[in-house]
Amino acid sequence: MLSVPTICVVDDDEGVRESLGNFLRSAGMRVRSFATAEAFLAYVGDADCLVTDLNLKGMDGFSLQMVLLQLGRRPPVIVMTAFATPAVRSRSLALGACAFMTKPLDPETLLLLIEDALSTRQGTPEP
Fold first, then answer.
1. Which of 65, 78, 86, 104 could hold 95 in an S-S bridge, CB 3.0 to 4.6 Å?
2. What value, to the nearest 5°, has the Cα angle with vertex 97 and ends 91 and 101?
3. Structural domains of the chain, ranges and CATH numbers in brackets
C-alpha cells in the first residue's frame, strides 16, 4: 500500500495556505499548513515536501532553509515568492531548494514539481 505524502505549506497569507491546501488535498496529498517558519520548525511530524514562501513574518524563507540544513532536516523544498529576481532564485537554489516558483502560482506546475520532488526523494536512501 502506498503511503499518502505529507506536504507542508509555509505562507503567512491565509488565503494562499487555504487554496494550496485545498488543491493539494484534492490531488490526494495530506497537507499541513503553517503561518510562520517558526511554527513549521516546531512541527515534529513528517514532511515529505516543503512548499514555502520567501517573504514571511518573523524568520524568512532563506533563514528557514538554513536552519533546516543545520538541523539535518532535508525535505525537498519548493520556494515561492512574488518578488523573484535572479539573485533571489540563485540564493534559494544554492541553499538546496529543488524548485523555485514565482507567484501567482500555476497549481498544475506546482503539482508536477511536488511529484518530481517526491519521486526523487523516494529514490534516495535515508541516512
1. 65
2. 85
3. 6-121 (3.40.50.2300)
pTM: 0.93
The string of pLDDT tens digits covering residues 69-97 is 999 999 999 999 999 999 999 999 999 99
CB atoms within 10 A of CB 100: 19
- Across the beta sheet with 6-10, what order do the strands follow? 30-34, 6-10, 49-53, 77-81, 99-102
β-strand pairing of 49-53 with 99-102: unpaired
Grid cell listed for 42 = 516546531
Best CA proximity match to 62, nearest among 42, 41, 37, 39:
37
Residue with cell 490531488: 27
Alpha carbon of 10 to those of 45, 51, 86: distances in Å?
14, 6, 22
